[in-house]
Design goal:
The chain has one domain: P-loop containing nucleotide triphosphate hydrolases (Rossmann fold, 3-Layer(aba) Sandwich). 49% of the residues lie in helices and 11% in strands. It has eight helices and five strands; from the N terminus they run E-H-E-H-H-E-H-H-E-H-H-E-H.
Length: 248
Amino acid sequence: MMAGAMIGTDPRVPGAQPARPGAHGEPGVLFVLEGIDRSGRSTHVRRLEEHLRYAGRGVTRTSLASALLSGDRIRAAKRDRRADPVETALLYAADLAERIEQVVLPSLRAGLVVIADRYCWTPMARAEARGVDAGWLDALFGFAPAPDAVLFLDVDPEASLARRPDDPDPYEAGLDLGLSADVRESYRLFGERLYACFDRYAGPAAFTRIAAVAPVEDVGQRVLRAADAVLASRSAARVGRLAAGRSG
């Protein structure tokens, strides 16, 4: 199902329901870090995990295309410039469903903090930027539990490109779309499409936008403060429920 327009205007919440502390109903906490390529996600996922472990929290990490059944097929599709973007989106949905069932939900039920290096929005943006219908993608990924917070590392395509000393991966550059014969220019143009998708998702999905063009230390502190605020909110809500139970 392909779209006539490149960027959809579907008013529904894109993908998972809006991020909100405790929205998934489990005792654990789910943090998602999103952003276009070279936004610093991997760095800040690692730093957040270290911060949480130092504070005594149990932490589980999960990342895109790491499911046993579909991970290899996703990597093969990314190498094939003729791959159908609808089929690739279905593979990403299968990947996420497997990880939610086997990693995310068991960890949340055990009271752990789950850090997801990308969630439903990156595969949605990659597909939508390739012309797949936005409403269809919203429905496809609508099974994903709402995170406690989506920390969106906000880097524009120009800054993303400047952070790449080497030529980008053809899939990440969107070379399959024929935007430009030059791989770096194609990467920039495709990045603009991706950024427009994330920008559309940000409001309805309640992203916490973190300006990520600042020095790494500054960005890292903003990420940690945002995460600590969510954890404090969850703790306060738990104390409130316990107090209400005792008084009742």
